[in-house]
Amino acid sequence: MTPTFLILVLCFATTQGRRPQGLRKHVHEFEIPQAQTKQKNSTKIWSGLNLKGFSWKDCGTSSSLVNIQSLSLSPDPLAFPGPVNVAAEFVVKQSLVAPLKGQLKVYKKIFGTYIEIPCVDNVGSCTYDDLCSKLAPIQGQCPDSLKKIGIDCSCPIAANSYNLGKTEFDVSASVIPGGDYHIIADITMNGAQATCIDMYISVA
């Protein structure tokens, strides 16, 4: 996963543990008409899930503002709820300033076909006009390891080479319903691509 996007998302996600039902409820409600879910499944509780599969590729171009040199996630397998450890080396070629526009496409496999999950209440396949504004309320909760390398979970993110040692983000609730997902995330700045990630995730 592109480190810039991952950092933005995980910083934001650390403050969302109080509302874990949002994504689960949205995905489940979307699945019912799509998959004609039986009534007995409506009470299923998503807990004790593991990340069974994870693959990613950089869908950016040579002119993207961020170059990724290395990335690792641990432990293996990841378990939700539980810690997600991230380590990464990446280069930001140009200072990333507001507004950073994020476009997120989220697909869930239903009966063998990936179906796009629509955007409802900023959850699903959404466009975020200013990711920086989403981070503003959480600056006081930014992990020390990020602040140590000059990233304080806010914009701007200075042009520099970054080496992020293993950093723990606590996923305090099982925010992702089980299943197979295809996620494409693209961040742009003033029309120029900052970073892009295309990933497949399996949670069970």
UniProtKB/TrEMBL annotation:
It holds the Pfam family E1_DerP2_DerF2. Residues 1-17 form the signal peptide. One of its GO terms (molecular function) is enzyme activator activity. Keywords: Signal. One of its GO terms (cellular component) is cytoplasmic side of plasma membrane. The keyword Signal applies. GO terms for biological process: ganglioside catabolic process. Residues 56-201 form the MD-2-related lipid-recognition domain. Gene3D superfamilies: Ganglioside GM2 activator. PANTHER family: GANGLIOSIDE GM2 ACTIVATOR (PTHR17357:SF0), GM2 GANGLIOSIDE ACTIVATOR PROTEIN (PTHR17357). This is MD-2-related lipid-recognition domain-containing protein.
